[in-house]
Every structure is written in structure tokens, then in C-alpha cells.
């Protein structure tokens, strides 16, 4: 079990502390109080804190093995930002599956990533054999929209669906979904989180031919949508788990920020799925909601902290150097 032991130990210390110092002990129960039908920001803060694994006594891989499928001859930064963020947030390993043209470039950015140059139809069976060892997979950063890529990614998503592999789909991965909306229809839990910006969200909404506020429930119970923007809106079939995040951030909308969010989300998603969040709740949907909240929060904080230092010159790479500070201020 996922650090159950240390959690129980933590819990008994906490209770002891409550008794001795009379701090507000309602917190620990309140995090699963869904009675007021809409979750409160404080509930999310407590739940997202509760998914962070302890580092003691774990073996390599316990904190997550994240896959990123993306990159192309034009785009090498996007899959790098996503993968390195998943590790900086706390995953143990990050695998990038990318094109031959992008692989060497990405390896040169970082010795921390494992990079496979297999993103080509001729290596479909190699990709298929890599998928099972990844806990959560991000599909889309820097993919491009070549018809051959769209076709290959459709097949990869289908394989992930057969395996019930949790996915985060972003950027050109969302283009693939908008070209064939059935590919994630009825995706099984633990499901998929789509992370469109407003433009991508509109394209998806058109693709499912719905323009009511329920368009995001088209794909079934286990596909949630985080619409990124000045405010981040998390939409899920289970409306009590929906939320809007504001605060943090800055006016700066720099390229690569979405990739940072997708990488952070993958790690948090894995952790949330491994944690027993709340007994009577829908575990997968609540995990998606809590993970997306943590990822949105961290991305906004990184943006804010980097912009304090670099102002208008803030780049995605600067945001990545602030991840540890964002984690500290959000979760300790
Ligand atoms: C759309 O996706 C479904 C499910 O993966 C697949 O069976 C179908 O062939 C795809 N359609 C097109 C036009 O690619
Ligand atoms: C969207 O809504 C408008 C009216 O609000 C309607 O005329 C249109 O047909 C709708 N489009 C779709 C795809 O449902
Ligand atoms: C979620 O959406 C599906 C498909 O639209 C629907 O059948 C199901 O009842 C919904 N579940 C909830 C909890 O709203
Ligand atoms: C959880 O569900 C069970 C069975 O439906 C019920 O008996 C119990 O009171 C519920 N617990 C909470 C905390 O809601």
C-alpha cells in the first residue's frame, strides 16, 4: 500500500497534537465533507496535500513513472517541459516517446529523461510494449498535426483505452480527439483529463456538436475537462467535484505553460489514484479533480513566482526553476 503505514503514523501524531495543543482538529474530517454539495477551496487544499507521498522508505518508481508522447521535427520544447515538470513535481521516472528527429535534441536538454525515438507508425509495436510500464501518460505536447501522426495517436489512445491507462490529453492530442471524438468515448476509469485552452475547448465543443454547459460530459463518467485560462475551470460529470481556480499567475501567457501543467497533472493524478481520498466518494473522479486542482495551483504559483523575479521576460524555463518553491508554499 501507498505509504499507508507512514500515513497512519502521521495521523496518530496529528491526533496526539490536537489533544495536546488543541489546534483545530475538524480539518482532518472536513476534507471529506461533501454535504454542502460544492467543494470548498479549503477542501481541495486539504485533499491535495493528502496525496503527496512521503519520501521515506520508497523504492525507485513508487512515486510514479510518467510517459509523455509528443514532439515532432518542429517542436522539441513542449514534451521536454511536460516530462521534466512531472519529475520536478516528484515522479521518479519520465519517459518521452518522440520522433527520431526530436529525440536527440530532447536528450541534449536533459540527462534526467528517458527518451525513445519511436513515434512513427513503423515502431507501433514498440510503443505498445512501452505503455504498460507507465503509470500515467500525457499525450499531445508538440505532436504537430500531420495526418500520419493523427492516425498513429488515434491507435495509441485506443491501446491505452483497452488497458484502462489514465491519460492527460493536451495540445495537438486534443486536435486528434476533435478529429475523432469517439476515440475517448466511454473511456474506462481511472479515465482521461483533457486540458484545453479556450480555443481548443471551443473546437472540442464543436466536435461533439453540443454548446450547452454539459458538452464536457459527452465522453462519459470518467473523462474530465480542465479548461485553462485566466481562470481555470474544472468540469466533470460529477458536478460536486467541479471547481474554478483563480489567483496566483500573472498577466504573462508564455509558451510552454500548458506543458508544465500537463506534466504536473500526470504526477498528481498518479498520486491521487494511489491514495484513498474519501470513503464514500467516486475515487477516480475525485482523484481527477484533486490532481487537476493541485496542478493548476502549482502552475499558477510558478508563474507568479517567476514573474516576480523576471517580469515580462518570464519564460517557461524560468517557471520550472520555481517548482520546488511552489510546492513548498502550496503543500507545507
Ligand atoms: C475513430 O476512432 C475509433 C475508435 O478508436 C475507430 O474505431 C475509428 O476507426 C476512428 N475513425 C476514424 C475516421 O479514424
Ligand atoms: C448552438 O446554439 C445555438 C443557439 O444558441 C444554436 O442555434 C446552434 O444550433 C447550436 N449548435 C450546436 C452545434 O448545437
Ligand atoms: C455522466 O454522463 C453520462 C453520459 O452523458 C451519463 O450517462 C451519466 O448518467 C452521467 N453521470 C452523472 C453522475 O452525472
Ligand atoms: C458511507 O456509506 C455507507 C453505506 O452507504 C453508510 O452506511 C455510511 O454512513 C457512509 N459514511 C459516510 C461518512 O457518509
TrEMBL record:
Residues of the signal peptide: 1-25
In the record, biological process GO terms are: metabolite repair; nicotinamide nucleotide metabolic process
As its record notes, the protein acts as a catalyst of: (6S)-NADPHX + ATP = ADP + phosphate + NADPH + H(+); (6S)-NADHX + ATP = ADP + phosphate + NADH + H(+)
Supply the CDD domains for this chain. Answer: YXKO-related (cd01171)
Q: What does this protein do?
A: Catalyzes the dehydration of the S-form of NAD(P)HX at the expense of ATP, which is converted to ADP. Together with NAD(P)HX epimerase, which catalyzes the epimerization of the S- and R-forms, the enzyme allows the repair of both epimers of NAD(P)HX, a damaged form of NAD(P)H that is a result of enzymatic or heat-dependent hydration.
**NCBIfam families named among the record's database cross-references:** yjeF_cterm
User: What name goes with this protein?
Assistant: ATP-dependent (S)-NAD(P)H-hydrate dehydratase
Gene name of the record: HaOG205644
Amino acid at each position: 500500500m501507498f505509504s499507508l503505514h507512514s500515513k497512519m503514523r502521521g495521523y496518530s501524531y496529528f491526533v496526539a497534537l490536537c489533544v495536546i495543543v488543541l489546534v483545530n482538529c475538524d480539518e482532518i474530517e472536513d476534507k471529506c465533507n461533501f454535504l454542502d454539495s460544492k467543494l470548498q477551496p479549503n477542501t481541495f487544499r486539504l485533499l491535495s496535500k493528502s496525496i503527496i507521498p512521503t519520501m521515506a522508505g520508497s523504492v525507485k518508481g513508487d512515486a510514479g513513472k510518467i510517459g509523455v508522447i509528443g514532439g515532432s521535427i518542429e517542436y522539441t520544447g513542449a514534451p521536454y517541459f511536460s516530462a521534466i515538470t512531472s519529475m520536478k513535481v516528484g515522479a521518479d521516472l519520465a519517459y518521452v516517446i518522440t520522433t527520431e528527429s526530436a529525440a536527440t535534441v530532447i536528450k541534449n536538454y536533459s540527462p534526467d529523461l528517458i527518451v525513445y525515438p519511436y513515434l512513427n507508425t513503423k515502431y507501433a509495436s514498440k510503443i505498445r510494449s512501452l505503455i504498460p510500464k507507465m503509470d500515467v501518460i500525457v499525450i499531445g505536447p508538440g505532436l504537430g498535426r500531420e495526418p500520419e501522426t493523427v492516425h498513429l495517436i488515434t491507435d495509441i489512445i485506443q491501446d491505452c483505452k483497452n488497458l484502462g491507462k489514465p491519460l492527460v490529453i493536451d495540445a495537438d492530442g486534443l486536435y486528434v480527439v476533435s478529429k475523432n471524438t469517439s476515440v475517448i468515448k466511454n473511456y474506462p476509469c481511472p479515465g482521461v483529463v483533457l486540458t484545453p485552452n479556450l480555443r481548443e475547448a471551443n473546437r472540442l465543443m464543436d466536435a461533439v456538436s453540443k454548446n450547452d454547459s454539459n458538452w464536457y460530459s459527452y465522453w462519459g463518467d470518467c473523462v474530465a475537462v480542465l479548461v485553462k485560462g485566466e481562470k481555470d475551470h474544472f468540469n466533470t460529470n460529477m458536478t460536486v467535484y467541479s471547481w474554478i481556480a483563480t489567483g496566483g499567475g500573472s498577466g504573462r501567457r508564455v509558451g510552454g505553460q500548458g506543458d508544465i501543467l500537463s506534466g504536473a497533472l500526470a504526477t498528481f493524478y498518479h498520486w491521487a489514484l494511489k491514495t484513498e481520498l474519501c470513503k464514500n466518494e467516486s475515487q477516480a473522479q475525485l482523484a481527477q479533480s484533486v490532481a487537476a486542482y493541485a496542478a493548476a495551483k502549482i502552475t499558477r504559483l510558478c508563474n507568479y513566482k517567476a514573474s516576480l523575479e523576471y517580469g515580462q521576460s518570464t519564460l517557461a524555463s524560468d517557471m520550472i526553476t520555481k517548482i520546488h518553491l511552489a510546492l513548498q508554499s502550496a503543500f507545507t
